[in-house]
Design goal:
317 residues; 11 helices; alpha/beta; 34% helix; 11 strands; disordered N terminus
Amino acid sequence: FEFYRNQKDKKEGGEWGTRYLGESDDVWKHNGWDAVEMDPETLEKTSNKISRDIELLEARPDDERKTRLQEAKETSGDRWDEFYKMHEEKFFKDRKWILKDFPEVDPQDIFWEKSRKDSRNYPNHYVLELGCGVGNTLVPILKGVGCPELQLLGCDVSPTAIENAGKRPEISGDSRVNLFVQDATRELTLPPGPTQGDISVILLIFVLSALGPEEMEATVKSAYQWLRPGGMLVVRDYAHGDLTQVRFKPEKCLAPGLYLRGDGTRACYLTRDKLRELMSHTGFEEMQNKEIKMLRTNRKTRSLMYRVMLQGKYIKR
């Protein structure tokens, strides 16, 4: 999901988010455009496809639906470990946009100016990523934030992912990082250092989409407990209507908005309202809740691909 203006920008770590499609622009000139709404025909096809998925799902016996949901839940951790054994650290790109879109990760960001004057003392700026995978978010943070008070914690349900992340030189050579195996949907147990109420920022980057509804609630509730007052939970994930949702075969639908991939992992697509409901139910105050819409082009096949992501920032009061 990272679009670059040209090869020079790509080599220098340029970011997507700055190329807009004007009325006079040739859509095939570039492989990606930002802030593009779906055309009416695609929007209708997308809506009809998702509605049809739900109709076919509801036609199945209740017992069958419950069994499929439960099996997917119980095997999720093993499936992700198998995924990382196969792909190692080569599947996902480093998220170079993380500090641009979530500058609050940096303890020197203006967001924390008030808290620095607070009577409560937080000597360390703890940032915890739940579902850190092989460090694709952690590494850009380490590169972009140099201050010693930053303390990064990363956990994942996959032991293989944590092992691979720990081998990355950017992580193994930085004493500010602590990696550990942890299922984020269960009661969180962190390494020595922070206690409940000490964490400044918790990251959920393409994590909620890998969970079922009950697991989402448990994960968000744990995040709330570990955050300090005024701390922030940030979310980036797939949104309802994204191209990848439309591409699923109807029989892969486990529940409305929830699908089973071929490798056994799950993909859930939330709306802004569902994300807002999930967070407000836990007690978070909403600071940001928006869709990020992108258009990707395949000039060889002359096809247009609409991508939709959710981005949210939530404060513990």
